[in-house]
Amino acid sequence: MGVIMKISEVPQDDIKTLNGVKKALYAVDDQGCYAKTTTGGWEAEEVVLNQVIGDFDEKAGETASRVRNNETSPIEYFMYKNWMDSPTLAQAMGLYHWQVKRHFKPSIFKKLDDRTLAGYATLFRTSVDVLKNFPGED
Amino acid sequence: MAELKPLEHRHYAHCESGVVTALLRCHGLDLSEPMVFGITGGLTFAYIPFIKITNMPLISYRMLPGSIIKGAGKNLDVQFRTRRYREKEKALAELTTLVDRGEIVGLQTSVYWLPYFPPEMRFQFNAHNLIVYGREGDEFLISDPVFEHPVRIKADDLQNARFARGRLAPKGFIYYPVRVNPSIDLREAIKKSIKRTVRMMLYAPIPFIGVKGIHYMGRQIERLKIREDPRYVRLFLGHIVRMQEEIGTGGGGFRFIYAAFLQEAGRLMGSTRLEEASRMMTEAGDMWRRFASACAKACKSKTGDFDVAEIAQLVQKCAIQEKHVYSHLKSIKL
Q1: What are A's interface residues with B at a Cβ cutoff of 8 A?
Q2: What residue ranges do the domains of chain A occupy?
Q3: pLDDT digits 0-9 by tens, B278-303
Q4: What domains can you pick out in chain B, each with its CATH number?
Q5: ipTM
Q6: pLDDT tens, A40-57?
Q7: How is B61-125 classified by DSSP, letter by letter?
Q8: In B, which residues are within 8 Å of A18 by CB distance?
């Protein structure tokens, strides 16, 4: 990994997490002058991003089996699927943390009104149907 | 409304400084992005242990979102019209009216709702800035400074992005300059802003900010060695690197963009000592990247056979180097 920020040594690792997007940055040329240049990403960035995504995916996987065992609701599963934790989810929904935690209870989840479910579905970029009929496999 | 220059999309390192730079250029003040970032006082370091984001401490290498816009008002004599909304429909109606009459405006948005972002980047981050410069039917024409090319977005998606809830919720925040002073005295602005940044980095009254904050983060990393759980250690290190290197930072936690500012300022003021400060700051940026590289290596290690004390040492070196930079800057008579 090149670490000296010369234009000629700016990492060009074309990392997958950037999905082809190039980033602009400032680096020095051979005369020591700063100029704008672009990068296809640095491997270090990709490693740490994949790590946190991997952590969420793992949690989603564990949660999926807990949903199947009726220990939690699909809300918790989709929360991890969308890379949130419960305080973040509560904020994004405009709810209190305890309300979201309560919605994790399968018995409460079954009784949720359609408006609340629609709110969750929009946030999770999915449909109420998918929320209600948890796919069960992943 | 004064006659605007048409927007020419350019690619920038950071979203907020990019938007402000582009808006100012449309209004006749043509500055570089590093100049805008430096003069508005964008640089900082903060490690706030009691504010948690997905269970990790708040770490920032730059000032709070919105501070570049505010700083442009304070240090560049720019007057912005700004507005937040309670009603979504009103926000959309006003945006439509503005762009239809040719105004070029900045918006605060959540990347979670921006479909053109790489999927892996779409976290709940509510302080992304972009420019709207036109409309075609149901689609707005977007100049997003961290992308190479202009993009388009459907009104529905834009509404979601402007009204995402949570931390730093944008509440439809819209801003655009109404008065720009094209003959602003840059030297005065540069002096003032460097002084402010130096004061904050060296003498912040709390131990979580500036050079003290960097030392503090070093000690927190050092303390990780008593943690049993290597998974947590890796996530913690990864979290720091993300704040430092991800899209919008220009790499090295904004240190390179600030070094570019110092170089440009040095040339403008004929100060070789400022240019020297720029080289020192570049070195600080390189040190930060060495630290990031070590963290990434630790994150990849399956066995946990990495030495957190060594990684902590790298951070302490960054702190010492940055102290040199600010002390040097302080000693320059501008």
Answers
A1: 1, 3-5, 16-28, 32-34, 36, 38-39, 42-45, 47-49, 51-53, 55, 83-85, 87-88, 91-94, 122
A2: 7-41, 45-132
A3: 999 999 999 999 999 999 999 998 77
A4: 15-30+79-179 (3.90.70.30), 186-331 (no CATH)
A5: 0.94
A6: 999 999 999 999 999 999
A7: EEPPTTHHHHHHHHHS--EEEEE--S-HHHHHHHHHHHHHTT--EEEEE-GGG-TTS-GGG-SS-
A8: 118, 120-121, 247
